[in-house]
Amino acid sequence: MIPHLLLIVLHVISLGTISSACTRAVLYSVTPSSDEQVGYLRMLEKTNEAMDFWVLTSWTGEEAHVLVPAGEDARFKSDLKQRGIKPTVRNSNITTCGNSNNNSSNTRSERNAAYSSKPGTLDFTSRYLNHADINRFIDYLGKKYPDLVTVTTIGHSYERRPMRTVTISSGKPSKTMIIDAGIHGREWIAPATALYLMSQLVQNSNRHGELLANITWIILPLVNPDGYEFSLNSNKFWRKTRRPAKRCVGTDANRNFSFHWGEKGASRQECSQTFAGPKPFSEPETQALRNLLLSKGNITSFYLTLHSYGRFLLYPWGHKKDLPRKWRLLDAVARAGAVAMKRNHNVSYRVGGAAKLLYEASGGSDDYALAVARIPVSITMELPAGGSGESGFHPPESQISRLVEEAFTGIRAMALKMVQMDV
Fold it and tell me: Any idea what DSSP says for residue 6?
């Protein structure tokens, strides 16, 4: 018998298909107590297009967060009750509308407009910048600090937004590190962290001599600019790219890489949040990132991809629970970051293999960077949610400064550990 919950897809507009209409949903906390219950939740995540799992690990006793369309929560609770699972409401009135995370009477666009003519003064530690202002800041760095910064357009998104990298180098022989962010549109704190990292390395370069003397930094602050803009302005929980498929819009860019594409943890259903795309590298955004990794892979020691949410430092493999042969190297670098953030900010990051610690997810950029681009260290940093978790992917703007400073401490420590270990 088909579970009632699966029938939701027949009469609900999937979260993966929402365009610009505002809808309401309920955020639930669910804690599975058996492997069978974990398996059921994993099945729902993969097959039910209406369910949006924000957090879900492969472990019993670990809290999962799932967003359920308003009006379907009674059915959701009934189905879980039949399997001995008791969901708890975390937030009963969540809206998908964009531009709803402001902390003042002015809209984000109005506040950012005041800075548009002065890109050097853009304040990305107390507001989420749009793609245009991110590029203004990037261009400003390139013009203001030409001896330190090189700006390169590595490709364009489906909607023709430029994808720009910032290369920061003192010109001395060094290790190369590639950092990207924003592969999932709704993970706003990730691009904010990348911008803060760029600012520290360039505008405060005199304070970070050890990071510039030994490392060339290549930073791509926004892998998925179309999804990010759509999340900011229309549906704040939009995850995927914006290239249309047959029934729905978008592909999960972090399931679209060719290494073990379309296997566990990736969906072939195009309305799913984890839709792997019609084929590997179907998205112009993943093609651009692939080309960057392959072109620089032979000189790159460390690939770091910034995501949210949760406090995790994860390393391959994502497509299976086994660990790579040189996993101890990855673990040592990741743990250096976790230790530094605990010591300096009293925050705890969990460290381990991605599939072992969270769940199996095939076709990710981190696995591809290690296995295909042959970059020795590949790590995913899952940045935290704001508050107690109700803020999810969108920490209140008042918390941005604290969160990016924490992350910078961890990134700095991991980068220096990479140099120390002579990767």
Answer: G
Non-local CB neighbours of 94 within 8 Å, separated by 6+ positions: 24, 25, 26, 27, 67
- Predicted TM-score (pTM) of the model is 0.89
Query: Catalytic site residue 382?
Result: yes
The Cβ of residue 177 has, within 10 Å, a number of other Cβ atoms equal to: 26
103 has a pLDDT exceeding 90:
no
Taking residue 323's Cβ as centre, other Cβ atoms within 10 Å add up to 18
CB–CB of 393/189 below 8 Å? Answer: yes
Q: Strand 52-55's sheet: what is its strand order? A: 52-55, 64-69, 24-30, 88-95
Do you know the residue count of the chain? 423
Report the pLDDT value the prediction gives residue 51, as an integer from 0 to 100.
80
Residues forming a β-bridge with 179: 219, 304
* Active-site hit among 382, 390, 397, 406: 382
Average pLDDT along the chain = 88
For residue range 146-156, what is the model confidence (pLDDT) as tens digits? 999 999 999 99
**What is the torsional sign of CA 199, 205, 211, 216?**
positive
